[in-house]
Design a protein that fits this description.
about 220 residues, alpha+beta, Alpha-D-Glucose-1,6-Bisphosphate, Chain A, domain 4, 8-stranded antiparallel beta sheet, 7 helices, ASHA1/2-like_C, Activator of HSP90 ATPase, START-like_dom_sf
């Protein structure tokens, strides 16, 4: 297993645009390779017992038309499920979220790697105008997903379970979050973000994760 800080360089990040049922959306996108068979990665993201070991405890059924709920409050419905290559879910979080359907979706795509292993792509689309973006930019969700993809890397490589709260409070975890906020700032700039807004968003995201140690993956 690589040093956890080296794992940040394994992922490629960008911002984009999309359309959700609720209207125009922005996306945060991550892609990387895992040195594990495609079927194993698919099982790790759809088998509730395994998913709960690297992400959060979860209940529900990962099948088309099914629903899920994570221990942290995130929940949604399975919108597409094409084993072992594509999973799309609605992604709702917070009080009153269910009153605004179609505002947040997460899609994961898997494909065989050209040199072995599995190519993993995650796209989180959120409706333009959602309240987190003006303050935190893409780091609001991006840092949380970086932490989860790190946990998945640990789990796939050795079966190790990364304790999120303990890691987030450790020196390595705090540095990981700081660097993650910075690289999401770079993606924000590359996506056309205004430099002043980007700098303020990186500062706010860094302060949030370092002061609370609470990975917010929404």
């Amino acid at each position: 297993m690589k040093d956890v800080l080296d794992e940040l360089s394994e992922a490629r990040r960008k911002m984009g645009t999309s359309t959700l049922p609720a209207g125009e959306a922005y996306t945060i996108e991550l892609s990387r390779r895992y040195d594990a068979p495609l079927d194993d990665v698919w099982d790790a993201i759809t088998n509730p017992e395994r998913l709960g070991r690297w992400m959060k405890p979860v209940t529900g059924e990962f099948r088309l038309g099914g629903a899920f709920a994570l221990d942290g409050g995130e929940h949604g419905e399975i919108l597409r499920c094409e084993p072992p290559r594509l999973l799309r879910v609605s992604w709702m979080f917070g009080p009153g979220a269910d009153e605004w359907p179609g505002t947040s979706e997460v899609e994961v795509r898997l494909s065989p790697g050209s040199t072995g292993g599995t190519e993993f792509e995650l796209v989180h689309a959120a409706a333009v105008g959602e309240p987190m973006f003006p303050t935190y930019g893409p780091g609001a969700g991006g840092v949380g997903w970086d932490l989860h993809l790190l946990a998945l890397a640990c789990f796939l490589s050795s079966g190790e379970v990364l304790e999120h709260e303990e890691f987030s409070q450790s020196p390595a975890g705090r540095e990981f979050s700081r660097r993650s906020a910075a690289v999401w700032g770079e993606a924000h700039l590359a996506g056309g973000g205004e430099p002043g807004h980007v700098a303020a968003a990186v500062e706010a995201t860094t302060a949030f994760y370092l002061h609370t140690g609470d990975a917010r993956d929404k």
